[in-house]
Amino acid sequence: MKPRAFQLKLVLFGFAIAGLIAATLSLVGLRTQILQVGDSSSTGPIWFVTAIERDVQEFQIAIASYELGLGTFENANLRFDILWSRVSGANRGEVADKLLEYQVDTSVINLLQVKLLQYEQLVMNIDTASPASIHSMINDFNILNRDIHGLALDVLQASSNETREWREALLRISGENVAIGVAIGLTALALILLLRLDAVAARNQLAEKDELLIAAEAANLAKSEFIAAVNHELRTPLTSISGAISLMGSGAYGEVPEAFKKPIQIASRNAKQLGVLISDLLNAEKLSSGSMNFHADEMDLASFLTEQVESNKPYVETFNVELSLNANLPKLSVRGDRQRLGQVLANLISNAAKFSNAGTQVVIGLERVQDRAVISVKDQGRGIPESAGERLFERFQQVDSSDARERGGTGLGLSIVKSIVDAHGGTVWYDSVLGKGTTFYFDLPLES
């Protein structure tokens, strides 16, 4: 009985030691996490108020540049639209709730919104406005900008106080738990002296397994937090903003004044563009990690291209560019993911339209080369310099850094195109002549 009792005691003690080690490691990990996460507490309200301050400055610069003949009417209106959207967002949703919780004086935001309404017509007709009225507007925004800077400092102080209180409370709890762990550890150490040396070896092996498990769980948690942050911080607010803009534009809140229709249209277009950029970022990440799913089916390319031309034509026409399809397309079939290949064409057509001259054409073509189907998208734009080379298909690459400011985009579109075409066993390339236009091609293996 004695050997069996000893074995049972050894097993029970082994479980006790394992629990102790796991608890100790968890407490150490908790303390480290508190220090790290505490240093990176929520900065949403701080960022938002600081962004309003920056947008006011950008608007002032745009107005001043226009008055000096160094800026454009369109840029002044764009900066006004961005400032309008930012100020509207500060009065509702999570940011507004947090500012209320901080108990800071946000009257300057309301005053800024009043000033935006007051000067809206002046900005819309700035090309006919008098210098005196423009100077008056700039002076008003100078005063508002100082007040907004003060609000940003108040929000920063409130956020710092909140973070400090949160960290101190959690560190006190962690310290108490560490003291308990130390007491348990000393008790366990006294028991260890009564066991054979082989029990120590068993304990060490179990500790290593626990460490690996904790590391794996920490990595999983970090990934989950990242995905949740992207969804919450980007998609969720954007959905709310887009929905509100759509309701305003449809007249759900009452008849829309004529003066507000254009700003609402601009806001709606910018919200949609931001949604596309977010989708590009997530798609690029999925393609990079190999988690993008493809569903291949047999596709008739002639009918597919016809559908894509019809669906993309309204967007292309916003640039005063015509989208057309070559006549007498050959009857070719491939196996591919209709949705992903549609994304490839949408990206190529979008680029062609954005960089085409008004009044020109974007032409979609299809031909057979040996056992491959070659699809082309040809524009009559400004062309691509030879120095761009293959780096154009890398992530976050654009022909010129000014492209992002002038045309918008993240530089991910062609990278996504290449990844999707590669996944279909195809190749993507381009020919270009500066000043005359560019043709992008991609080929796909024909269905046997």
Topology:
Elements: H1 2-39, H2 44-67, H3 73-90, H4 93-102, H5 107-124, H6 131-192, H7 197-250, H8 258-289, E1 297-300, H9 301-317, E2 322-325, E3 333-336, H10 338-354, E4 361-369, E5 372-378, H11 401-407, H12 413-423, E6 427-433, E7 437-445
Short key terms for the protein model shown above:
448 residues; phosphorelay sensor kinase activity; two-stranded antiparallel ribbon; Heat Shock Protein 90; membrane; 69% helix; HATPase_C_sf; single chain; alpha+beta; flat; five-stranded mixed sheet; 12 helices
Question: Gist?
Answer:
By secondary structure, the chain is an alpha+beta fold. It contains twelve helices and seven strands. The protein has a domain at 297-445: Heat Shock Protein 90 (2-Layer Sandwich), CATH 3.30.565.10.
